[in-house]
Amino acid sequence: xxxxxxxxxxxxxxxxxxxxxxxxxxxxxxxxxxxxxxxxxxxxxxxxxxxxxxxxxxxxxxxxxxxxxxxxxxxxxxxxxxxxxxxxxxxxxxxxxxxxxxxxxxxxxxxxxxxxxxxxxxxxxxxxxxxxxxxxxxxxxxxxxxxxxxxxxxxxxxxxxxxxxxxxxxxxxxxxxxxxxxxxxxxxxxxxxxxxxxxxxxxxxxxxxxxxxxxxxxxxxxxxxxxxxxxxxxxxxxxxxxxxxxxxxxxxxxxxxxxxxxxxxxxxxxxxxxxxxxxxxxxxxxxx
Length: 288
What we know:
CATH superfamily: Ureohydrolase domain
Structural class: alpha/beta
Strand order of the largest sheet: 4-1-5-10-9-6-7-8
Number of domains: 1
Distance between the termini: 17 Å
Helix content: 25-40%
Shape: globular
């Protein structure tokens, strides 16, 4: 289901854990340099490219993350007002919180990731903020900080579909199973009937979706996305198939591509997968 070319606001957010242009923070700019915007223009999409950088002189993981959330929320809201589809390219997954803050309240979330990102500060032995992104979005942690992001409303668990997650801490996995989030591990995500059932259930609760793709949802034997990649992932064809099925049932209003570290992708295989996904997501998306 490829729609007429939508106008795209391409948001480049080159940060990883508060650091500019390092590790996964180098991914968004590398995709721009590889021609992401031009590929969209070649497919007929009008593209407005925005590169977001923080203005504060003191940069740290927490302060920088939430400053970026506020900037992304403002850009997302402006894109909606202009009839554009927001397409975020980010180093960190938690940046999706900003897109959801700027989105319509009836938006749901489909989250592709090797990990659950459902830790909280109380359950995360490593204290890694980006392993808490989905918990933040669903209101399970960092509620005082997320309340300062204009437009943010915690997303109800039953409006989230997690696809491809397979590498979780024990406490994180238990919390996820106890939540209302629908979870399709790789084996289930490869079953057409399971995908159909999950998408149909989500379609009954939301009017449109944001699609979040952490590129390490892919199997690293196909292409390595980052240092956190885990075996038994999805193949590019699996991800494309799920996206096509999803867009045939629920309008896609915005999307994120996150967590590509070019230093782990010496043969540029994941870069090419990511560029193909930029084109596909833009083609499947429609502005409100």
